[in-house]
Amino acid sequence: MARLFRFSNRPQRMFIETACTLLGAAFFLLSGSALPALAFNPDPKDAPKSIVVKGKTVDLTSLKNPYQKGSSKYPEHLEEGAEVYFRNCYLCHGDLLDGKGVFGDRFFPPPANFRHPANGVIYKPQAYAYWRIMKGGAGLPEKLNPWDSAMPAWEDQLTETEVWEVIAFIYETAKEIWVEEPETKTKPSVERGREVYQNHCAACHGATGKGDGVAAPYSSPKPRNLTKGQYKLRTTRYGKIPTDEDIFKIITLGLNGTAMPGWKHLPESDRWSLVAYLKTLAKKFEKFKKRGKKLEIISVPKPPAKITVESIERGKKHFMVNCSGCHGVKGRGDGNKTLKIVDIETDALWPRNLSKSWTFKRGASREDLFLTLRTGLYGSAMPRFSNKLLKDEELWDLIHFVQTLSPGEKPKVTKQISVKKVSGAIPIDPTDDFWKNVAAHLIPLGGQIIKNEKLYFSTTDSLNIKAVHNGDEIAFQIIWDDPDFDPVLQKTDSVKRSPPPPIPDFLIGQVEPEEQREIPAVPQEFPDAVALQFPVPDPAKSGKPYFLNGQDDRPVNLWKWESHPNKVKKLKAQGLDVLELVKDALVESKALYEYGQYRVTLKRKMTSKNAGDTQFKSGNKTVPIGFNVWNGTAGETGTKMTVSSWFDLALD
Fold this sequence. Notes:
With 652 residues, the protein is α+β, with helices and mostly antiparallel strands. The protein has helices spanning 23-31, 74-88, 90-93, 126-135, 160-173, 190-200, 202-205, 244-253, 268-281, 283-291, 309-322, 324-327, 366-375, 392-402, and strands at 50-53, 56-59, 416-421, 441-444, 446-447, 462-469, 473-481, 495-496, 529-535, 556-562, 567-573, 579-582, 588-594, 597-605, 623-630, 642-643, 647-651.
């Protein structure tokens, strides 16, 4: 395997993060409540003297990493540690080891920033890291509750060698974060760019830039194959190479919603050196230079001063004709042209979900959208919209409508979910107007990448939940986006599909209208599903069970709705592998799929005679709740699912 990094004796100092990256501050903002500082970062003095790992007692006070710097095989152990890290850790802890991976904002407390100057693990003994990796959040001392960490215990998943190798990689690599000294000014060069690339980029993009680095199998979208010279975000025309400034901007800011981080902490001269080196990886740049041509830059005109209702209505017509075929009528990616042809495993991705503007790669401002639409996303199915197709004023109209499909900002995540008390019967129908007046809470979801069949990427990154009770019954409405649906639901009245796009006015009478693709109403191989998770009551236990279906001595109840047979089953779980069907599942349900979105309502009596059931009492202490989602169309089943941290239900 090619070297993933080389170490330099270049003058360096640690990159100092801003205060907002403090784990404690992040959790405070997320939860809306202050917890003791101890709960955020366990202090080494709170580590046990010894732990039992696979039946063997390990003395932490004298424990040392057997793979020490200076040994002849140390570089090999670092490379093996890199493989372990990217296979198991980087989707949460990030390419920069700063806790800002793709799943970095899906769990709380957020993943650790290994290189934080005050709280980073590299400032603690390596035996401390061994304890945290082997035992995870579930292995913390009782006094640290309620920490509720999503950090898994890896003792059954990783070998002793793998744990020490990944520790060596983390401690060594987290120190290799450079910032340019004010007085240092070096001239950019291809040679320096090659060195920076091997140090920081090869793990994802591969030693030769073909997008085949060690992290590639665990990334979606896949790392760019830099030898093709195809860059999505450019200011140049579709199919053309980007400007140097375009590449520099991508390196500096990264790509939103992907594993590609921003590298603005690198010296500016190093980033320009990277630009020079990346251009040597693709023949397109040299060929363009030999032709003596100049790049045509797409300029963004000044947007209209006001956004009018009339502009939005005109934009809607443009959207339905030109965009709904892929993005669907609500922008959720369920267009008639894309159904059943997308394979996330091969990186044939669904069209962007336009109802979540915070996921747009370039950005969601009007200027960002104009440039994306005019230039297209080269190397993807997203075309450009030339001036011949839509004039500037028409493109602004389209942009104004697209902006109505999404909230202006990502909704805030709060740890507590309010369960509103209402009077009268609670309707089970998801379309009832009653539910429009119930507040929704955003729940982030991350892939289950710990045990058995793992899910490194999914179309489901979040759900919304609404909750009410009337003193007798409690009901939940769960809402999540899914660009495809289980065809068997067509046997009911619970499916509304995005229709084929209309024919443009200038082609009416010249071409045949696109037909709605027929989908047989039979169940797909794996059902689409959602589950609510509650701890099994146990007065003798404090804290919460482990968030992944509990554990041996701390089981959980699951209310799991599945698209076939379109009803709820109740399960008792003692971990991901131990599931027991409970026959007295007295939970009603009704489901709806509409334009790329599921809405499922679940309802049950608040109290039960079964002591093992979750009991809901108004004004009582909060009830923990967690969530799992399966996209059966994408092959998600069993442990291949998205999961949430624990949240707290607070009943009025």
